Amino acid sequence: MTQQKQYPHHIDLKPVMHVEGVVRLPGSKSISNRTLLLAALAEGTTTIVGLLASDDTLVMLGALRSLGLAWEQVDEHTHIVHGGGGALPVHEADLFMGNAGTAIRPLTAALAVIGGDYTLHGVTRMHERPIGDLVDALNEIGAQIEYTGVEGFPPLRIRRGHIHAQRLSVRGNVSSQFLTALLMSAPLMAREQPVTIDVVGELISKPYIEITLNLMRRFGVTVEQDGWQSFTVQPGQRYASPGTIHVEGDASSASYFLAAGAIGGGPIRVEGVGRDSIQGDVRFAEALEQMGATITRGDNWIEARSNGVLKAIDADFNHIPDAAMTIAVAALYAEGTTTLRNIASWRVKETDRLAAMATELRKLGAIVEEGPDYISVTPPVGELSAATIDTYDDHRMAMCFSLASLDGKARRGNTMRINDPKCVAKTFPDYFDAFAGIAHENLI
Ligand SMILES: O=C(O)C1=C[C@@H](OP(=O)(O)O)[C@@H](O)[C@H](O)C1
Ligand SMILES: C=C(OP(=O)(O)O)C(=O)O
């Protein structure tokens, strides 16, 4: 493959005949941004090792600094956060949140509960991503949050309210990040009485709630859980620094390399996540196994290799919505029609991912059916068409479509162009270097 860094507008990928190698993963976005906020809310100083360096963590770090919460980077891998013990030194701030859901949603709850005069805004797409369920839940318990643009969406203005929370409810079917945000702020509300959060309706993306609860526990707060329906925080619990937190490698980022191993030979080993990961997206490897790949797991690594032609699958991907995009592209190399179900949340992420995925897969010659909450992909007979893939300012569109340059067991990829590859900066700024590191041209 060639990587044309001098062309910021596109990258051309030649057919990749074989993939093999080891990839050290960047830090998990979900763990990084949660850890930063919890460390900032905690008492004491937290050392964070392996924080993700990307647009999404930069906006969180920038917001913490604007709020007067001190942190410093001491070397390439280590950050130190000086916790504010639940207080915010700066009472008025204008915060740019980029397109980071893991920054704007938890911060909205924390700022509304602690109180002050804050505005939160982001890129254009952030202003199209819903936040109404979270704002409703907070305003119902006395927060003062207003929309300064379109109702239900950022930008937001937060003023000091009078929080009286004992029981609050939030809808769970648009984004699990709303529940995550309320959970992380619940200890700040539960000063004298317990606080219970009820989930109204279905809760999507459940494994992300497990990440939230796991990290809260490490910062000294336990949450009583009644299934996925209600969550209670007993009073008097305060966040306290655990000392040091090691951030796992990003399991969603792992999906591209594991799929590459499953399609293009392998073995590919990703390092930084393993069988004990707290990230739900490690279950992506199970989907590859169902498609016929061979997966091996260690404490801190996962390895994938191909084992003949992949088989199509028909499965529910609600638990791994991000990594599921990688399956939609891997489906180009599977025999039969692959169907991904229960992924309506794709419509409200970095772009409308159901529409974007369908449009771009069709450019490669696939037959695609797109429904309100599902997509099915039938690969073309013979080679994939040469195509220019648009990425819609969505890092995952750029990363998962790089796989369409692979030579699978059944067919050869064609030279393809990926427009605006730099959008990977949201979670994986060096993605195309890492991909170049495992991609080998004709080895035969
Ligand atoms: O809490 C998190 O860290 C995330 C939750 C998921 O969002 P939804 O709950 O909106 O599906 C996921 O897509 C996102 O990338 C990260
Ligand atoms: C949906 C995603 O991001 P966010 O954390 O902004 O919701 C994603 O990374 O795929």
Automatic annotation (TrEMBL):
Binding residue positions for 3-phosphoshikimate: K29, S30, R34, S175, S176, Q177, S205, D322, K349
GO terms assigned for molecular function: 3-phosphoshikimate 1-carboxyvinyltransferase activity
Pathway the protein contributes to: Metabolic intermediate biosynthesis; chorismate biosynthesis; chorismate from D-erythrose 4-phosphate and phosphoenolpyruvate: step 6/7
Keyword set includes Ribonucleoprotein: no
Enzyme class (EC, first level): transferase
Span of domain Enolpyruvate transferase: 16-434
Keyword ATP-binding among record annotations: no
Binding site for phosphoenolpyruvate: K29, G101, R129, Q177, R353, R396, K426
Subcellular location(s) of the protein: Cytoplasm
Pfam families in the cross-refs: EPSP_synthase
Active-site residues, Swiss-Prot/TrEMBL: D322
Reaction catalysis annotation: 3-phosphoshikimate + phosphoenolpyruvate = 5-O-(1-carboxyvinyl)-3-phosphoshikimate + phosphate
Enzyme Commission numbers on file: 2.5.1.19
Keywords of the record: Amino-acid biosynthesis, Aromatic amino acid biosynthesis, Cytoplasm, Transferase
Coiled coil, from the record: none
Homology family: Belongs to the EPSP synthase family.
NCBIfam families for the chain: aroA
Subunit structure: Monomer.
HAMAP family found in the cross-reference section: EPSP_synth
Role according to the record: Catalyzes the transfer of the enolpyruvyl moiety of phosphoenolpyruvate (PEP) to the 5-hydroxyl of shikimate-3-phosphate (S3P) to produce enolpyruvyl shikimate-3-phosphate and inorganic phosphate.
Name used for this protein in its record: 3-phosphoshikimate 1-carboxyvinyltransferase
